[in-house]
Design goal:
There is one protein chain. This protein is an alpha/beta fold. The chain has 4 helices and 6 strands. The protein has a 6-stranded parallel β-sheet, with helices on both faces. Strand 1, helix 1 and strand 2 form a beta-alpha-beta unit. The protein is globular and about 45 Å long. The termini are close together. It binds zinc ion (ZN).
Length: about 190
Amino acid sequence: MADPKEMFRPDDALLVVDVQNDFCPGGALPIEQGDEVVAALNPWIDAAQKQRIPVFLTRDWHPTGHPSFAANGGSWPVHCLQDTYGADLHSGLLIPKNVEIVTKGTRFDQDQLSVFDQTGLAEKLRADGIRRLWVGGLALDVCVLATVLDGCREGFEVRLLLSGCRPVTEEGGRESLEKMRQAGAVIIE
Ligand SMILES: [Zn+2]
């Protein structure tokens, strides 16, 4: 198992994707064992904070009429409504002092699965001299997948923290890892 204290380089950033109540057991769109990523990711957040590695916590943050909801033609139940408990980050998640929150899924015309989709994050990371990304969160086969593929496409080295992810489906998780490897990401077991 990789030791977070020994893994970071000065040009790294940590991305923690959508660790929100609605994606955890009891939420509106629960992922099996989704809450277990909290204990897996906290040591990475802690180590990043101590080494002054920037940490980005992302959140799905939907308006009531969001196009990803089934009632509006999408594939998902209503989830992560803005300013609701379901959209809050899991309360066990370590929120570091140097945190940046990235908000996505706010558009009325399309969903944004990837943290890089029209958020300006890639530009900011490049401006800050970041070259490598460590990524974990929810769900492995949806927003984490889209984020890792976009991160590779944007020219970053990407490391996936597998113990800090859970998939919607096992099969989707397996396929996602294969797609990530093909895109050049390194899977950290
Ligand atoms: Zn969503």
